[in-house]
Amino acid sequence: MFLRHVGTGLDPLGVVERACTERDQLAAEFKRTVDETWVVFDKDDADKEPGKTNRFHQALRLAADNEFRLAFSNEVFELWLLLHLTAIAPTTPIPRGDIYAQLEQELQKHTAFSTFNYVHGKKDVVDAVLLVGNEQAAMQRAEALATAHVGKTTLESNPSTQVHLLVKELRKWIAYFGYEK
Fold first, then answer.
1. Rounded distance between C-alpha atoms, residue 162 and residue 53, angstroms
2. pLDDT tens digit string along 50-63?
């Protein structure tokens, strides 16, 4: 098994286009078909402007056309981290700033992080969540959000995240190959 992660800093369509390129390069490098390709991205204000909405829907179509697996978050990836710490009601959309603030507040409830200040883009939040959060609870909470949004479009499904699907797949491979957590 070979994994390659690629960070792009692009909008959703840019992420999927880059995934197409990376998949093709990996297939050529190893002279075999790539088994799975995952794309991970956030909503990125796709509902704010018609041009962004169009690019977002193009990203979803291109991902589906290429049979890519999707780990999408609405509103932001940090929702996945927050789900490690607390349940979130599925009924009210949550703006990204509120997710960031709640993530900081939940971490501050733990003695080791009582003075924690969330700074977007800094890895320390992931490290903190890994120390005090609960991945299994996050999985269950993400599933509950997904169930609550059945029948809604991807853009309407706020709050929601599919990152648990990727984590579940990675955990399956880790167990298969006998790697420790």
1. 19
2. 999 999 999 999 99
